[in-house]
Give the backbone structure.
Amino acid sequence: MSVLPFDDRDGLIWYNGELIPWRDAKFHVLTHGLHYASSVFEGQRAYGGKVFKPREHSERLIKSGKILGFENPWTPDQIDQAVEDTLKANNLTDAYIRPVAWRGSEMMGVATKGSKIHLAIAVWEWPSYFGPEARLKGLRLDLAHWRRPAPHTAPNDAKAAGLYMIASMNKDAASAKGYDDALMMDYKGRVAEATGANIFFYKEGKLHTPTVECVLDGITRQTVIELAEKRGYEVIVRDIWPEEMASFEQAFLTGTAAEVTPLSEIGPYKYTVGDVCKTLMQDYDDLVNGRL
């Protein structure tokens, strides 16, 4: 399938308070965020013209910046409004939304004092990350080589660009072997997450999901926990070790891009796309589309 390059598209991007032509949204090659990963971002979706949980995303964007040591000059209200304005300017109702904040090119070097904080928001049509066919069959995940870092070595509670380097490496390695994605362990060897989504397992009437010591506590993850509990499922948040994966019956990923996506395979372990996965997929779809 042909995909348009992301620097050469029609449309408008919100950039530091202005809506500008898509192709004009550029920054200098010596931007601090490019060289030192001093950048944070969000992934959001709009369904039928309504942004799902906008305030939670805007507040997390600001929080992520603070963890990296910078103050976002825009308030949650202003960011929420900018997202709405960008959607309307691009005549989109069902869209993926990418706010990103970064340190600019005023300073070069590890030190950040004096650098300006920039904010941009782009929107585009982007169906569920893995596509309808893969979601029906269940994804195949490789066991990743690179692990999630320890909480005292990286800001795991920030949605920071630098933390996705190992995700990209693991994703590319899995794709080269014919897998859809990869499952990462953490620094202790516990089950952590996929390259851009949280993970859940199901057996004997209970859902199990890893602790968030080394992973981002996703907004979709939190939403699915609430939906599962409304259905009467007990959700157990705990350490999960790789050898336990053989005992689970079903497994699925959650994330803004992935939404709720079942798994059929993780390395040597096999799963069915069962009723629990299908029910939570439907419940999530109903919720974000205003039917629940």
